[in-house]
Structures are given as structure tokens and as C-alpha cells.
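Lecture 7 notes: from sequence to structure.

We start with a single chain of 360 residues. Read the sequence below before looking at the structure.
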Amino acid sequence: MMVGRMNSPLARIVLAKPLTVRRIVQVGFVLFFVLVGWQFHRFVVSLSAAHADDVAARPPAAEAFLPISSLMSLTCLLKGGGANHVRPAGLVIFSLTLTLSLVLRRGFCSWACPIGTISEYAHTLGRSLFGRNYALPAWLDTPLRGIKYLLLAFFLGFILRTPADSLAGFIHEPYNRIADVKMYAFFADPSRVTILVLAVLLGLSVLVKNFWCRYLCPYGALAGLLSMLSPAAIRRNAGVCTSCGRCTRACPNRLPVATERCIRSAECTACYTCVSACPARGALAMTLGTARRRLLLGAFLYGLLTVGAFLLVSQSARALNYWQSDTPPEQYQYLNAHMAEISHPTAYSPRPQANHTPPE
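Now the structure, written as C-alpha cells:
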């Protein structure tokens, strides 16, 4: 009976290697975002319908791809400007991601982010094609890693200095309300420059591990800085470690796992690659808590907490009616029809703008 239970599908997942568990979660998130993308495509296409009743449902989770808007919403909320209903799902997802980074490290990047997953599979493809990935020399790697922090400093410096009423003014502007459709149009009909930039980034991601995440993503930079305060970390038991160095060689972020007792670097994405590579049982583990009381975070538990948090928070927000945007279909139709005339505002009004509903 016990053997039968150990061979059950659930048991095989629970006892699977860390990388296997993470890849299952990654595939689940990718499939979810593919579904969101398809639903959003149907929504955009339906905006040309004659009647607002014929507009397809807009998936709120698409707001996850507007992190700058979500950062402005969170900053406005923290400054006393209230929680807006223009992009509520974006605010919820962004806040949850930062909270998870603070509690469970920067696992969003390697477990949930579809861009992170694409980047990982790109360098896996590169290793298959060329037999290796290329590591930039330290004199070039270090300054390049600073780019994402400079980008983060630019956005934070601008947004944090903006008063709450001015942030609210931007949030309620037509540009922010139609930003998701603008983003769709940008990628649905890309220019040659856009195609070239994307091709170069993809090519570099094939050659260099996590090129986008390591050097250019300001979202990951913010999550990484918060993760340095996290009670969770990869810890090495020096008494069990054989000093083989496999963990360091396996780490996609080039962290010196084999020589550190605890990895608290902002570059650690809790990917469990080092744990999977370690041949000595108990030498490496992700733990949560203080020295007096620590919880062992196996990959299955980590994935369960991550997926469970997204499901619980999103469904709770939906139940509390803070998930759907307050932009009605007819307003989306009007803004979509006049999208070419809507540009990024150069100055923010001290008061929230009107909803810019279509004329009767």
C-alpha cells in the first residue's frame, strides 16, 4: 500500500527534483499568460464592434505587464492617494510580487515570470547548440549589472518625487487607461527597429545566461533589493559539503555558492539550480527563518507557496471587487478609436482627470 502511494502522480511531484518541480510551475504560469494573451487579443479585436455589449471580456491579469503603472499606483496608495480602480489587478499583482520577494526572495523571476522562463530556455538552447554558455569578463559584467539598478533609480527617482494628487492625475489620464491596448498594438505590429532589438536580446540570451534578467530588468532589480531583507536564503552546511564546486558552476547568476555559508545576494532568484546540482545530501538547502528556528523550504513547498499566494490573493481581490478595471467597454472603444491622438502626458494635473467617457 505504501509503495502504491509513493508511486502516485502527486507523490512523484512532491519527491521530484527541484528543477523538475520548478519547470512544472513555470509551464503552468506560461500557459496561464498565453491564455491571458489570447483573451486580451479577443478583447482588442472586439473593440471595433458596433455596440459595447459585443466587446469581449478584458482579462485583468494583463495588467501584470504594466509594472510602471502599477508602481505609480502603489506609490500613490502609500502617499495617501488611495487605491485606484483604473488598474486594480496590476496594483494587486505588483504588490504581491514585492511581498513575495521580501518573504521568499526573488523567486518570482525564476518561477512565475514568463520573460524569465523564456530567458532560461534560451540559454538552455544555447548550451545545446554551442556546448556552453558564455560568461562576460568581470570588468564588463559588473558595470553591465548596474544598468538595471540605474533604470530602477530613474523610475523610482521620478515617481517617488511626484505628489500623490499628481500621480492620481496620471493614473486617471486617457493614456494610462489605454496603455495596455497601446502595448498590444506596439507588439502586434512591430517596427523594424523593435524586431531588431528583440532579436538582439534573444540572441544575447541564447549566448549568455539570463542576459535580460541579469543586466536590464528594473523590475527584477527592485525584487532583488527587497529579497536581501528576506528571512529565506540558500544555506550551505560546511560539515556535509564536499567542496566539489558543482553548485557554483551550476548557478545561472554566477554566485559563489560553494564558498559562502548563506547566499543573500540580490542576484539570487531562488531557482534551486545549485541545490539540484549538489551531490551531497543536506549540504545545500533553502530555509526560512532565523538561526533559532528555521523551516526547510523544499522546492515543492516553495512552488506551492508561490502558486498558492497568487491564487489566494487574486481570488480574494476578485471577491472584494478590487480586480476589474472601472473603465467601461464604451470608454475603451472611444479611447481605442482615438488612440493615435493620445500621447504620454508631459505634465500631471494636481487633480485626478475626468474619466474621458465618449460623448453621447
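The chain has one domain: 16-46+61-319. Keep this in mind for problem set 3.
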